[in-house]
Amino acid sequence: MEKQYCKVGAVTPMSNGRQAVHILEYQYQNFMERASSINDAKLVEYFEGKAQKIKKILENLV
Fold first, then answer.
1. In the predicted model, is pLDDT for residue 11 greater than 80?
2. Is residue 55 part of a domain?
3. Distance CA 51, CA 57 (A)
4. Which of 9, 32, 34, 56 is at 20 to 30 A from 26, Cα to Cα?
5. Nearest to 26 by CA among 62, 56, 51
């Protein structure tokens, strides 16, 4: 059996256009839902921060 190597943390680039916008919108909504359903203040802050970063990216794309 041969050794197989993978890149840890490798990222698959998003395609341009509508598909990227839909993926980002989904991620934004997902992070906002998680933030609203959690009681831990630090986790809420984390998820809201992630959502805000995605929102900025969306604003630049549209």
1. no
2. yes
3. 10
4. 9
5. 51
